[in-house]
Amino acid sequence: MECYITYCVKGFLAFNSENEVIAKKLFPNEEIIQRLAEINDKKIVKEELDIIEEVSKDFDEIIIESNKRQSDYNNEKVTIENPNQGGEYLRENYDKFDLNAEDITEIYRNLAIHDIKASASEDKHLIQAINSIDEIDESVSKLIERIREWYALYFPEMDVIKNNETYIKLISQNKTKKDIVEAKPDAFPSEIIDIDEDIDPKDLEIMNSYAKSIYELQKSRKNIEEYIDAKMESIAPNLRLLVGPTLGAKLISHAGGLKRLAMYPSSTVQIMGAEKALFRHLKSGDRPPKYGLIYQHPQVRGAKWWNRGKVARMLAGMISLAVRRDVFTKTFDENASDEFKSKVEEIEKNNPFPTKTTKKRKEEKSKSKKSKRKGKKRNKRR
Fold first, then answer.
1. Residue 64: helix, strand or coil by DSSP?
2. Degrees to nearest 5, angle at CA 224 with 222 and 228
3. Cα–Cα distance between 150 and 220 in angstroms, integer?
4. Residue 62 in contact with residue 78, Cβ under 8 Å?
């Protein structure tokens, strides 16, 4: 014997082969929108499991309308059929089940608003976070330049510390020269360090306070990076796996949202971030850009110059597919990154040397640069 399970805005219903209702599991009124949203996200809700369990006792085959895979149910009796007999009967006879068009329209309108708010909220938080990273980097760069110049008046030997994070951490956590040298003795040869304190304590205190402020900004940046990684794992796992959380977030920010990025063709994704070069190409006829933001990907940046365009084009295509999986199908391809790397290796292997065309283009590019420089020099002389 077989039965048919389908769902409507009120819950799940099961029909026998004669279209008689044999079981029903309704959603709680206050959770209807939430349940429908979960179903759209390809989740198996409580009411669905309950009705399957109930009809499994009396029926050998359960034919269910579902956007999920058969393996998701972990039940040998379940098969997927869209649409099935029970679903068609339900949609043709809404009046018999106390459903009217106005109620259904209102519920789906609220569901659409719920989905828009949820997706927009996720995107907006991610966009603000990645923009904050850029602004923190810009600010910290200027602040570190200032503290290095300032602190050199007191402890010029500190310039041997090239890593900015280490430099700031040492100053913020150690008040005097002696404390810094003891904290990192391998960096400071004792014979060249003058440990004598020849500075006003107030000057030293204000420099330490300034360094602590920069150190807190650096810690905030790390926290935001971890937040971006977690957010990307939640809303765009395929994109995160392929290009990393930071570059993925930058692409989403540049597009204005994850869904907008999913709508872009791969040719647009390839040159996102290179709009100035594109407009210059359209205006003056210069060669069009081959890549934009995706140049930050190590596989593109590390490719030989004559292969970067090919690698960028392939990566852009894979980004488009990854984002569409994240937005529309909600499936995860754990092999995407390995597949991309193997394709890059194949491109590099098949193109070990530049072709005559690429050499000629490079020569033309260098000639145009030289002519522009000469033109600028002539204008200056005039």
1. strand
2. 115
3. 23
4. yes
Condensed to tens digits (0 to 9), the pLDDT of residues 239-258 reads 999 999 999 999 999 998 89
For 318-354, what is each residue's pLDDT tens digit?
999 999 999 888 899 999 999 999 999 999 999 988 8
Q: Take residue 328 and report the two structure tokens written for it.
A: 């529309």
What are the tokens at 97? Answer: 């089940």
Residue 44 pLDDT > 80, yes or no?
A: yes
Beta strands in 83-178 (DSSP E): none
Helices assigned H by DSSP within 325-355: 336-350
Amino acid symbol at 254: H
- How confident is the model over 50-73, as pLDDT tens digits? 999 889 888 989 999 988 888 888
The model's pTM: 0.64
pLDDT recorded at residue 71:
83
Residue 2 φ/ψ, nearest 5 degrees: -125, 155
Residue with tokens 């966009």: 127
Residue count of the chain, please give it: 382
Tokens 């068009």: give the residue. 101
Q: How confident is the model at residue 158 (pLDDT cuts 50, 70, 90)?
A: confident
**Six token digits for residue 280:** 């210059």
Q: What's the N-to-C CA distance of the chain in angstroms? A: 95
At residue 364, does pLDDT exceed 90? no
| Residue 78 phi, psi dihedral angles, 5° rounding | -85, 130
Tell me, letter by letter, the H, E, C secondary structure of 89-115. HHHHCHHHHCCCHHHHHHHHHHHHHHH
302 phi/psi in degrees, rounded to 5: -90, -5
Q: Which residues contact 35 (CB under 8 A, 6 or more apart)?
A: 11, 27, 45, 47
Cα 219 to Cα 216: distance, rounded to the nearest angstrom: 5
Task: Specify whether the CB–CB gap between 133 and 248 falls below 8 A.
Answer: no
The DSSP output letter for 159 is G
Tell me the domains of the chain and their CATH numbers: 2-99 (3.30.420.220), 120-233 (1.10.287.4070), 236-351 (1.10.246.90)
